From TrEMBL:
It comes from the Bacteria. Residues 48-116 form the POTRA domain. The chain crosses the membrane at residues 21-43. Its main location: membrane. Keywords: Cell cycle, Cell division, Cell membrane, Membrane, Transmembrane, Transmembrane helix. GO terms for cellular component: plasma membrane. This is POTRA domain protein, FtsQ-type. InterPro entries: Cell_div_FtsQ/DivIB_C, FtsQ_DivIB, POTRA, POTRA_FtsQ_type. It comes from Anaerococcus vaginalis ATCC 51170. One of its GO terms (biological process) is cell division. It is found in: Membrane. It holds the Pfam family FtsQ_DivIB_C.
Length: 264
């Protein structure tokens, strides 16, 4: 064998040895090692530790009470955080009807709860019933005076059944849910459902002639705006009609207008 051929063979052997270093097995191993390093750093990095918790929908339970059921999420890696266990803990509270936890990378979780609690009291013939904010009949009560803080519902059509909604009218249940979102919801004293076409509401001793349930969300927003305007102008109104066309009709005490003019 000539000298040139021997040199070529040595070169080929070296190339083969170099090629053997990067076998498919070695490449796969390298990828696994790199992926493992990235995953470990991902779970340890402060960037993915929960630093913000937003709680929405609670009116009775405080934020602290709900946080105590969430397995101390602050500082926990958002990817490893077990939201299912926290949801189960939340549902152990009788007042919580449903719960949902949403993760928003890198460090935020949103907790949405829906509570069920005594909100209204309704009379049917000689009996009185406590009704939840969801429309569900909770219990029968003997003493209405013990429930003076509850909103009064007048004119219910059928005998309430405990454990069921006080009405089969789905729009009415949605209306009850929507009315609780009013800015002035805490000031509602009474809702008259004797006639679904002429629903009456009393807010801050103001008689609201609401009309029917058509476009009720729009009318509720309009009502909120009118009540805010009355409050800002310090006018004493005794009636607001939302059933006489597109524009609300507000009746006020003349004395309050005179006092307003004098102040101006």
């Amino acid at each position: 064998m000539s000298k040139k051929n021997r040199q070529k063979n040595k070169g080929r052997k070296k190339l083969k040895r170099k090629q053997k270093l990067f076998t498919p097995f070695f490449v796969i191993f390298l990828i696994i090692v790199i992926a493992a390093i990235l995953i470990v750093n991902l779970f340890r990095h402060d960037y993915y530790k929960i630093s913000q918790v937003y709680i929405k929908g609670n009116k009775i339970l405080s934020n602290d009470q709900i946080l105590s059921k969430l397995n101390n999420p602050m500082g926990t890696n958002i990817i490893l955080y077990d939201e299912k266990e926290s949801i189960e803990n939340l549902k152990k509270e009788k007042i919580i009807k449903s719960a949902k936890i949403e993760k928003e990378l890198p460090d935020k979780i949103i907790v949405r709860v829906k509570e069920e609690y005594p909100y209204m009291i309704a009379r049917y013939k000689k009996d009185s019933y406590v009704i939840a904010n969801t429309g569900k009949v909770l219990d029968k009560t003997v003493n209405e005076e013990n429930n003076n803080n509850l909103l009064k519902i007048k004119g219910i059509k059928n005998k309430p059944e405990i454990g069921k909604n006080f009405t089969d009218n789905k729009n009415l249940i949605k209306f009850i849910d929507s009315i609780q979102k009013l800015k002035y919801a805490k000031d509602i004293k009474e809702i008259d459902l004797e006639n679904y076409n002429e629903i009456g509401i009393i807010i801050n001793d103001i008689q609201i002639n609401f009309g029917d349930l058509k476009n009720y969300n729009y009318k509720l927003k309009l009502l909120d705006s009118v009540l805010k305007d009355i409050e800002n102008k310090k006018i004493k109104a005794y009636s607001i009609s939302l059933d006489k066309g597109k524009n609300p009709v507000v009746e006020v005490e003349e004395k309050s207008l005179d006092e307003k003019d004098e102040n101006n």
